[in-house]
Amino acid sequence: MLWYKAWLETRWQFYLSLLLLTSGSASAILGFPAILGNRSAALKYSQHQFAGSESLEPVAGSLARDRVAERAYRAYVGMYWFADTNTLRLWSLLAIIIGFHGTSGDKANGTVSFTLSLPVSRRRLLSIRAATGAIETVIVFVLPSLLIPLLASVVGARYSVQDATVYALVIAAAGMVFYSASFLLATSFSSLWPAVIGYLLFIVLQAQLQGSSGIHQSIAIDALSNQSSGRLLVRIGLLVCCALGLIYLSIRQFRRQDF
After folding, report:
1. Residue 71 counted as domain residue
2. What is the pLDDT of residues 209-247, one digit of tens each?
3. Could you list the residue range(s) of the whole structural domain that residue 14 is in?
């Protein structure tokens, strides 16, 4: 019952987020044939750092075209999906919206008293809501990313389902700190605006300091460029621990509140 109730609180935010990112993923993928039709552009993409670590040895005939197409597609989806500034900003904003509605729904609907009267501790109640929203936030990025291998044959290329899943999970894990921060703010405010304004200020600060949209973009670039896996795992682990710490603070604050 608690899982289902948590799902009801955020289901429309989840559906809208999934629709927006799926549309963005499909439109990005369907733009690849224009690149593939231009041989010089395809060769340029095939030599990009996102194209893969294997060397592009000279091969004749259709095998050469297939190899160039595969490498160009890997670079293309890396640039315009996994490490794309607008894509990651949109996903982060949607994660904030899902995180905020995880606890603010009862306040907005005036059902806080009913929810707290259920025979369950506040800790368990909020833990389930946090887990439900986190799963939704990950799915919202992973499912659209799976269109990349599914539509690859349509645009004349190939892409591994495993690679798409791993990249999506890595980026989603790194960006979960946005969801957790919003979840924490939802326990203190009844309006979404403090979370949105905070995120916009974060973007401005990142642009001034690093020229990027956020910490998860730099991790996406490292993952796509086949950087050291040990260093990458350490950075992701730190971000996940930070996200879990924010959720823990949310639970502690919620347990102390009077409604």
Report:
1. no
2. 555 556 777 788 778 877 666 777 888 888 889 889 989
3. 2-29+84-256
pLDDT tens digits, 118-137: 667 778 888 888 899 999 99
Q: Is the pLDDT of residue 34 over 70?
A: yes
160 in a structural domain? yes
For residue 20, tell me if it sits in a domain. yes
In a domain, residue 41? The reply is: no
165 CB contacts (<8 Å, ≥6 apart)? 142, 145, 146
User: Rounded CA gap, 44 and 39, in Å?
Assistant: 9
| Residues ≥6 apart with Cβ < 8 Å to 41 | 35
Mind listing the pLDDT tens digit for each residue in 75-87?
A: 889 888 998 888 8
Cα–Cα distance, 76 to 57 (Å, whole number) = 20
Give me the pLDDT at residue 60, please: 46
Sign of CA dihedral 45, 49, 50, 55: positive
pLDDT recorded at residue 61: 47
Total structural domains within the chain: 1
